[in-house]
From TrEMBL:
This is Response regulator of zinc sigma-54-dependent two-component system. One of its GO terms (molecular function) is ATP binding. It comes from Nitrincola lacisaponensis. It comes from the Bacteria. Coiled coil: none annotated.
Length: 446
């Protein structure tokens, strides 16, 4: 049984805390004013022993904030719970001993016999599919608002068997996202099978997907298992589904609609058992309008579309990705990128997204002699950023109207703090001011 630490003055706590005993994930009881009244062992193991966290506020322990999350520009599940009276789930970045990590926070209102809200039960589902700090492994990395929004959608879809359609430019991480859906599903222990749809001819498509019987065609010397059979009990990932020619689309539609298929040369219909995830870099709606993609198939596969942000849409992740990719590229231990090179990369559009960033690092790694990838080791297209131009955020700044600096700063901070997903420490660091200065400026906004 887990150890529960309590504040002795709370009368309803013993009963409530018994609840925490049965929860395996980190969980707390929170007072109406955000204070931690009790926590279970899993929570204490991450955030410090019970005594150290009891009586402190959740926003301080989890984020290092001095104000509740909604006042620090984040969505606050406790506030949302209070406003709606309903259970709430929100993806947050929390401090952990390994640095900041994604946590799926579940907030449940607890009421007394009279129906009055007396406290909250908070359960933290640790997110294993993505990391917010560089580290080992090969999963997704990111912490920008655009990345977190996508991650939240993937996590919502994963536990059900719904068909997910991943939409994004090449190199944005669609295969990794498909894997994350698989890993977060009840089929995680089953196989994850990728079908690269581009370049599959009609006959190859059928024999690869459905398999064939011995003697089904010239050269079919034995029975061959198809990818659908290989994906039994797991996930079938159809990458670049927009490339499938129309005749094969009919076969795919039949498979999805009936859940059955026939092997090439086979007579008996076979039952398929897979969860479908599809991906494309194409605008499928446009393909439908142009008669290149079947509308009925489009509706079958687009039940849960998720857009993957391009690297240009998540500039906050650039340095984290550089560090993570360097940790993952074989032989890149000890390699770093100079500040000047990072400044140039920040202004580059990355049409090939994360794959292109990885290629740039692999190339730079071979060119550098001292382990530091500098401007001279970047490909020419990255170096052609006009040095006379101001960095991208300032280039379109209006100067034909004079705005008092104080007003400008307040306007900027208001918008920034509403959008910034990290904690105040990292915001202060990015702004180049101390945390204390930032708090002073933020409190003037209220
Ligand atoms: N969020 C991420 N964190 C770390 N690495 C990533 C991330 N997203 C993508 N990558 C890396 O970038 C490369 C391209 O990713 P992936 O193959 O999943 O992209 P894709 O969108 O499927 O590309 P394509 O459409 O061209 O097939 C891989 O090396 C992958 O490991």
């Amino acid at each position: 049984m887990a150890d529960i630490t309590l504040l002795p003055s709370q009368p309803a706590l013993p009963e409530l805390s018994a609840l925490l005993d049965v929860i395996k994930e980190p969980a707390t009881i929170l007072s109406l004013d955000y204070r931690i009244l009790a926590c279970n062992q899993a929570y204490a193991a991450i955030y410090g022993d019970g005594e150290a966290v009891l009586g402190r506020t959740c926003y301080e322990v989890s984020h290092g904030y001095h104000v509740p999350c909604d006042q620090a520009g984040e969505s606050c599940p406790l506030k949302r719970c209070l406003d709606t009276g309903q259970r709430q789930r929100v993806l947050h970045l929390h401090n952990t001993p390994e640095g900041e990590e994604h946590v799926d926070v579940e907030m449940n209102p607890v009421r007394n016999a009279e129906g009055e809200l007396i406290c909250y039960l908070e359960i933290m589902h640790l997110v294993k599919e993505a990391r917010a700090t560089p580290g080992e492994g090969d999963g997704m990395v990111g912490r920008s608002p655009a990345f977190s929004r996508m991650l939240e959608l993937l996590r919502r879809a994963a536990p059900s068997d719904i068909t997910v359609l991943l939409l994004g430019e090449s190199g944005t991480g669609k295969e990794l996202a498909a894997r994350a859906v698989h890993d977060g599903s009840s089929r995680a222990r089953g196989p994850f099978v990728t079908v690269e749809c581009s370049g599959l001819t009609e006959s190859l498509f059928e024999s690869e997907l459905f398999g064939h019987e011995r003697g089904a065609f010239t050269g079919a010397v034995g029975r061959k298992k198809g990818l659908i059979e290989a994906a039994r009990g797991g996930t079938l990932f159809l990458d670049e589904i927009g490339e499938i020619p129309l005749p094969q689309q009919v076969k795919l539609l039949r498979l999805i609609e009936t859940g059955t298929y026939r092997t090439v040369g086979g007579i008996e219909p076979q039952h398929a058992d897979f969860r479908l995830v599809c991906a494309t870099h194409r605008d499928l709606k446009q393909q439908v309008a142009q008669g290149l993609f079947r509308q009925d198939l489009y509706y079958r596969i687009s039940a849960f579309p998720v857009i993957l942000p391009s690297l240009a849409d998540r500039p906050e992740d650039l340095e984290l990705l550089i560090e993570s990719l360097l940790a993952r590229i074989p032989g890149a231990e000890g390699i770093s990128v100079t500040e000047a090179a990072i400044r140039l990369l920040r202004q580059y559009a990355f049409p090939g997204n994360i794959r292109e960033l990885r290629n740039i690092l692999e190339r730079g790694m071979l060119l550098t002699d001292d382990g530091r990838i500098g401007v001279q080791h970047l490909p020419p297209e990255c170096q052609h950023v006009d040095s006379v131009l101001a960095p991208a955020p300032y280039s379109g700044f209006p100067v034909d109207e004079v705005i008092p600096l104080d007003q400008l700063e307040r306007y900027y901070l208001q918008r920034l703090s509403a959008r910034f997903k990290g904690d105040n420490r990292s915001l202060a660091e990015r702004l180049g001011v101390s945390e204390r200065t930032l708090y002073r400026k933020l409190s003037r906004l209220k």
